[in-house]
Design goal:
The structure holds 2 protein chains of 2 kinds. Chain A is of the alpha/beta class. Chain A contains 4 helices and 6 strands; from the N terminus they run αβαββββαβα. Chain B contains 4 helices and 5 strands. Chain B starts with a helix and ends in a 22-residue tail after the last helix. The chains are: A alpha/beta, B alpha+beta. Chains A and B meet through loops of A and helix 2, strand 2 and strand 3 of B.
């Protein structure tokens, strides 16, 4: 039996239209990963990450591989989570190596992995606020640093006219749009994805937030 | 005995001390780089009109340009003065550059070019900002473009 047949035997109707991946519901995530390992023989956990779909919520994608002689069969599982409360079951009991990937997805996208024993930040420094791979996260250095393209031809930094409306860099919000949500209150901007990348989720005011 | 391996290793290193290295490759011999290698970005400032397109398109904000306007008086009586943008400063910060080449693509007057030179590591990160004179020097290392494919249409720039 060749590989696509095996995949369709195990996953059936869940195979995505592009035939490249398997779309599962968040409730089935753990059991389908178990199925990929035990029924399909995908013994190698390749990677797990998140995708920010803005209004569509968050997608958790993972790839599992079955090493064969001379080649590798692989399958990609994806599940979509709501934006206001992205959470999915932890698969560390199936693949222990997923623990680091889930920690990284938790800190970068804010996706909660229910049952994970240790969701400490993996890459970000202590005290970092926000989830930097979310599309509504604003890079603070981009707001703080003057944009080299703001100058017009024939102009240097010293002789910039103060009153003129400056050209703004693409994707960076005006500093007046960019305010901090009140602490302890749910962030209202999460459910309404901002246009043109404007966001209201500044990093920590102590300066540990974003580094270029 | 503890340390035997260390002595063996030192003896092997000592016996090979005067022999030329067996490894061939970069530090001993320069690598054969493919055409269109992205080593460093060179500036031919005679072509630059200070349009700011490269500085605005740069995704990593690594191009700094300063300029001023100069007026030349009219050549004919009653004609008006012409103003030109004069380049004061053009600097690329290679500690920020990600070698995407968008500045080169976007330049409407071919003032920026890829050079295959890559040996400009520095001990101080501030020395990675190349000012216009250094960027101009890189221009001498820009190779001529690769020859056209056989049966390609002749380039439009060459009349006839």
């Amino acid at each position: 039996m060749d590989w696509p047949e095996q995949v369709s035997r195990v996953f059936g109707a869940e195979i995505a239209a592009d035939a490249q991946s398997v779309e599962v519901t968040a409730a089935d995530w753990h059991s389908r990963v178990l199925g990929a390992r035990d029924d399909l023989g995908c013994t190698f956990f390749d990677w797990l990450t998140g995708v920010d779909l803005l209004p569509g919520g968050f997608e958790v994608v993972a790839r599992f591989a079955a090493p064969r002689v001379g080649h590798t069969d692989a399958i990609m599982l994806r599940t979509t989570l709501p934006r206001h409360q992205p959470s999915v079951a932890c698969i560390c009991d199936v693949f222990a190596g997923a623990a680091w990937h889930e920690r990284e997805t938790y800190e970068m996208f804010g996706v909660d992995f229910v049952g994970h024993l240790d969701l400490r930040p993996l890459l970000l420094p202590d005290g970092f606020e926000g989830h930097p791979l979310r599309k509504d996260f604003v890079l603070a250095s981009r707001v703080v640093k003057p944009w080299p393209g703001a100058k017009d031809p024939g102009e240097s930094a010293s002789d910039a006219a103060p009153g003129r409306r400056r050209t703004r860099p693409p994707g960076v919000p005006d500093s007046s749009d960019w305010r901090r949500p009140p602490i302890g209150q749910p962030d209202a901007s999460v459910d309404t994805p901002p246009e043109s990348g404007a966001a209201r989720r500044p990093p920590d005011a102590t300066g540990t937030g974003d580094r270029p | 005995m503890w340390g035997d391996g260390l002595l063996d290793g030192l003896a092997a290193a000592w016996s090979k001390l005067t022999e030329p290295p067996a490894a061939t490759g970069y530090p001993g011999a320069l690598p054969a780089l493919p055409a269109r290698s992205r080593g460093v970005i060179a500036l031919i400032e005679e072509n630059c009109t200070v349009c700011m397109l490269c500085a605005r398109e740069c995704p990593s904000w690594c191009i700094a340009i300063d300029s001023h306007k100069e007026e030349t008086p009219s050549v004919t009586p009653g004609g008006r003065e012409r103003s030109h943008n004069m380049l004061d400063r053009f600097a690329i910060d290679y500690s920020l550059c990600m070698y995407c080449g968008i500045c080169i693509e976007v330049c409407p007057f071919d003032a920026l070019h890829w050079s295959p030179e890559f040996e400009y590591a520095e001990l101080d990160i501030r020395d990675l900002t190349h000012e216009r004179d250094r960027l101009r020097e890189w221009m001498w290392t820009v190779p001529p473009p690769p020859a056209l494919d056989p049966h390609a249409p002749p380039p439009k720039e060459i009349p006839g």
